[in-house]
Design brief:
alpha+beta; five-stranded antiparallel beta sheet; 5 strands
Length: about 180
C-alpha cells in the first residue's frame, strides 16, 4: 500500500516537474548577477564563477524542478512576475494558435489550487484512491487502477495518465 502511494506521488511529481524545465532560470540568473557585481575585473569574476560552481548546480536544479515548472504552469515567473518565455510574441515558422481553442493558447493553470488535505485509501488489491480537499473547499478524487501490468489514473472519473508497473518500479528505484 505504502509502496504504491510513494510510486504514485513520485510519478506525479516527476511528470509535473519535467513539463516545465524550460524557463527564464531566475534563481540562477540572480546568482549570475551577484557574480558579476562582486568585482569589476573579468578574471576575478571568472574566479568567483569557479568558486560558485556548486551553487550554480543547486540553483539550476531548483530552476529546472521548481521555479521553471511554476513559471510554465502559471504563465509567469514566480520571482520576477515576467511572462513565461513560451508566451512571448515572436515571428514564428508555424502558426497554430488561430486554429486552437483559446484555452489552449495561454498558460493552462492560471487558477492554481492549494491542497489542504489528501487521504489515501486502498479499495482493493488493484485500486487505490486519494480523496483531495482544496483550500477553497472544493473536493476531487484521484484513482489509480491496475489492470495486468498497466496502471491508469483518473481524476474525478476522467482518464488523465497511464503507466506500467515496470515504469513505476524503475522510478521507485531511481528515487530510493
Amino acid at each position: 500500500m505504502k509502496n504504491i502511494a510513494v510510486k504514485l506521488i513520485g510519478l506525479s511529481l516527476m511528470a509535473a516537474a519535467l513539463t516545465g524545465c524550460v524557463g527564464s532560470n531566475a534563481v540562477t540568473g540572480k546568482v549570475m548577477k551577484f557574480n558579476v557585481e562582486v568585482v569589476d575585473n573579468r578574471y576575478a569574476r571568472a574566479g568567483v564563477n569557479f568558486l560558485l560552481a556548486p551553487v550554480y548546480g543547486i540553483t539550476t536544479a531548483a530552476d529546472y524542478v521548481v521555479f521553471n515548472s511554476l513559471e510554465f504552469w502559471t504563465g509567469k515567473n514566480p520571482l520576477s512576475g515576467s511572462p513565461h518565455i513560451f508566451d512571448s510574441e515572436t515571428d514564428t515558422h508555424f502558426k497554430v494558435n488561430d486554429e486552437l481553442d483559446p484555452s489552449l493558447t495561454d498558460a493552462p493553470l492560471s487558477n492554481n489550487r492549494i491542497i489542504e488535505s489528501g487521504e489515501m485509501i486502498q479499495l482493493d488489491d488493484n485500486t487505490i484512491e486519494m480523496n483531495i480537499v482544496y483550500g477553497n473547499g472544493e473536493k476531487a478524487t484521484l484513482k489509480g487502477i491496475k489492470k495486468g501490468e498497466n496502471v491508469s489514473y483518473y481524476m474525478d472519473g476522467e482518464l488523465v495518465a497511464q503507466t506500467t508497473i515496470d515504469e513505476l518500479e524503475k522510478l521507485a528505484q531511481e528515487k530510493a
